[in-house]
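User:
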Amino acid sequence: MWQELQRVDPDAAARIEPANTRRIVRALEVVQLTGRPFSASLPRYADLVPTVHLAVRWDRAVLNRRIDMRAEAMFASGLLEETAGLLEAGLREGPTAPRAIGYAQAIAVLEGRMSPPEAVAATAVATRKLASRQLKWFRRDPRVHWLDVVAAEDTWASGERERVVAEAVRLVQAADRPGGAER
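Assistant: Predicted structure:
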């Protein structure tokens, strides 16, 4: 299928990994249904004004532990009570809010469909999936400068925050000079 995409839309094939069959099938469907290349609808990665794109990248194991800790903290700091109040104020009528990560799991607890520990675990799993999708999305963007974080367990390593900030400042300042920010 990827070879067929390469034949009918080489630009799309260059931007879609050969193992990503879902996107390949979608691209071929778009070409067949519209007669236009799928690549015509792909992001152009062009800024309207000069912009420096920075992204912080944590080690995946550390990121997952931080997500787990955050999910636990959300419930420990009153998410169930907050959600109960929002339900009384009409949370269910919103098209997206009752499905949002954290609220959906809290609603399940309040309705007796999930225990609090199950909700914490489900919130962490949903957040890890979202983080993975976000990383994949931004990884495709050639404008993004990745700032890798060295962590000591689940926190910044000594001096690491300052190093990352200094690198970010360097990239922003380099963008102001002729030739822009180097990779």
